[in-house]
Amino acid sequence: MSRDNAPHDDADLRTRLIHAGSPGLRDGAGPVNVPVVRTSTVRFADSDAQHRLQARRGAGDRVATYGRHGLDTHQALEEAITTLEGGYRTLLAPSGLSAITLVLLALLKPGEHALVSDSVYAPVRKVDRVLLAQHGITVEYFTPGRDALPELIRDTTRLLYLESPGSLLYEVLDLPALVAQAHARDVLVATDNTWGAGLYYRPLALGADISIQAATKYLAGHSDVMMGSVTAASADVFDRLAAVHDALGLSVGADDAYLTLRGIRTLDVRLARHQVNATEVAHYLAQHPDVVQVYYPPLPQDPGHALWRRDFSGANGLLTFSFAQIDPRAAGAFVDALKYFSIGASWGGYESLALEAAPERLGEHASWRGGRSAVRLHIGLEHPADLIADLERAFEAVRERLKRSA
Ligand SMILES: *Cc1c(COP(=O)(O)O)cnc(C)c1O
C-alpha cells in the first residue's frame, strides 16, 4: 500500500506547500522530489489509449498528449502554485511578462477596454503599446484611492488589472473594495501577486478572479530561472485562459519547472528572513540624514501601512528610498559605491541588488512627488549588519563625490 503523505485541506498553508505535487510511491518506494520529465513526444500504448487520453484532454482534464502540455514536473509545479494561490488551476508561462500578456490577450477583444492601476510593473505599458493598442483594445491607467473606479468603468470595460503593492513605490491597493466595484459591473479582476508571492498575500481569497506571478522572483528564489504563472479562481475563467495559452503555444522547460518547485519548498523560510533583513535596513534608512523617504509598507509612516496590515501577512525584501540631495547623480554614485549589492534588475533571489529608479518610470506613479533621485534595493539573505555597513559607506561616497564636483 502506498503511504499517502498529502496533508489535509485544513492544514496550514506552509505545511501544504511542503507536500503539494509530491510524487506517489511505486512498488513500495520512491523519491522525495518529482522527477524532471523532459519530452517533446508523448507515447501511447495503443490507438485506444491515444483516443481516450485525447478525449479527456479535450474535456478539460489535466492530461498531456504532447510535450508542450507539460508532463509530471510541470503538473507538480502547477499544483503547488494552485495550493499557494488558493485557486482552481494554474497555467505556466515562460516568464512573468508572458503570463501577464496571456491574461490580457485572453480576456480582451478588439473594441474592449481595460482599466490598469498606474503603479503596475512598467513593461505592462509596453504590452499595451506594442500589442493591445494595435488590436483595437483600449487601456486606461488610473490611480486607485484617488480616482473613483465606478466612474471609469465603461460599457466596453472587461478587465480591471492591478498590482498590489505596486512596483517601485509599493502603493498598497484596497483590493476588496476595487473587486466589489468591478464585479458589480461584471468586470473581471486580475492582479499581479509577485510581491506577496502567494504566501503573504492571497488576492483570490480577497475576491480577485486571476492571480499572476513572476515565479522568476521569490518562487524560484535563486536568480536562475525565468517563469510565470497564472492562477484562476474558477473553471470558467481558467478555460478562457487555457484556450489562449494553448493557441500561443506557451511552454516551459521541465528543468525550470523543477527548479521553481524546489524554490517553493523553502519559500516560507526565505521570505521570513528577507523581511527581517529588509525591516532592519528600512529602519536604518528611515533615520538617515541623506534620505527623504523610505518606501516599505511595514513602516508605520508608509502611506500603505494600514491596508498592508489589514490584507497582508508579511513583507518581502524590496524597498525604495529617495535622496535628500537634489542632485540627480546621487543614485548612480550610490549604487556604484556598493560592494555587496550588485547592480541589476529582477529580484527575489537570495542576494542583494540595487538599481537606480528611472525618473520616467517614477513619473508614471501618481504617488511620486518627483524632484529627487531614488534607488530600489532588494535586501538579500546576507547578514543585515554587513548590508547596513555597505550602505553607510555608499552614503559617504555620495557625499564625497557631490562635494568634489560642487
Ligand atoms: C519581474 C516582474 C514581472 C516580470 O517577470 P519576468 O519573469 O521577469 O518576465 C512581472 N511583474 C512584476 C511585479 C515583476 O516584478
From TrEMBL:
Protein's recorded name: Cystathionine beta-lyase
Keywords assigned: Lyase, Pyridoxal phosphate
Organism: Bordetella genomosp. 1
UniProt similarity note: Belongs to the trans-sulfuration enzymes family.
Cofactor dependence: pyridoxal 5'-phosphate
Superkingdom, natural source: Bacteria
Pathway the protein contributes to: Amino-acid biosynthesis; L-methionine biosynthesis via de novo pathway; L-homocysteine from L-cystathionine: step 1/1
Catalytic reaction equation(s): an S-substituted L-cysteine + H2O = a thiol + pyruvate + NH4(+); L,L-cystathionine + H2O = L-homocysteine + pyruvate + NH4(+)
PANTHER family on file: CYSTATHIONINE BETA-LYASE-RELATED
Transmembrane domains' residue ranges: none
Keyword Lyase: yes
InterPro entries for the chain: Cys/Met-Metab_PyrdxlP-dep_enz, Cys_b_lyase_bac, Cys_met_metab_PP, PyrdxlP-dep_Trfase, PyrdxlP-dep_Trfase_major, PyrdxlP-dep_Trfase_small
The keyword Repressor is assigned to this record: no
Pfam families: Cys_Met_Meta_PP (PF01053)
